[in-house]
């Protein structure tokens, strides 16, 4: 009977991770679209568009770097074992 509970918890965790991955893809898509739109606003200033593009790419680059850093160094907090209540009780 306990095996069914573990499978149910794992199925919930897989659904949550898949949902988060889908939302991350939407964030990346939206950020790319907004970046393209922001750069195209300055299309009339042709001689400075390179500077504008560099300044506009800095915040998303810092955000993605922070996301990757958090995933590598604090990813253990969202591991698959966290879905099991017995593991959470043992850790406390």
Give me some keywords for this one:
single chain, 92 residues
Question: How are the elements arranged and paired?
Answer:
Elements: H1 2-41, H2 49-73, H3 85-91
Helix pairs in contact: 1-2
The count of β-strands is: 0
Q: Could you say how many structural domains there are in total?
A: 1
Mean pLDDT: 79
Percent of residues in beta strands:
under 5%
* Unreliable runs: none
**Principal-axis shape:** elongated
Residue share in helix: over 70%
Could you say which structural class the secondary elements and strand pairing correspond to?
Answer: mainly alpha
Gyration radius from CA atoms, angstroms: 20 Å
Task: Give the ordered list of helices and strands.
Answer: HHH
- Distance separating the two termini: 25 Å
Give the biggest beta sheet. Answer: none
User: Can you count the helices?
Assistant: 3
Describe the structure.
The chain has about 90 residues and is mainly α. The chain has one domain (about 1-90). Helix content is about 80%, strand content about 0%. The chain has three helices and no strands. Helix 1 runs antiparallel to helix 2. The protein is elongated and about 65 Å long. The mean pLDDT is about 80.
């Amino acid at each position: 009977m306990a095996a069914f509970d573990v499978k149910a918890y794992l199925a919930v965790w897989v659904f949550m991770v898949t949902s988060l991955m889908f939302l991350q893809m939407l964030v990346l898509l939206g950020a790319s679209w907004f970046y393209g739109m922001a750069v195209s606003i300055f299309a009339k200033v042709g001689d400075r568009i390179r500077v504008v593009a560099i300044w506009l790419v800095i915040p998303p680059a810092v955000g993605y770097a922070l996301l990757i850093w958090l995933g590598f160094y604090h990813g253990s907090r969202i591991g698959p074992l966290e879905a099991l209540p017995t593991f959470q009780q043992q850790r406390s």
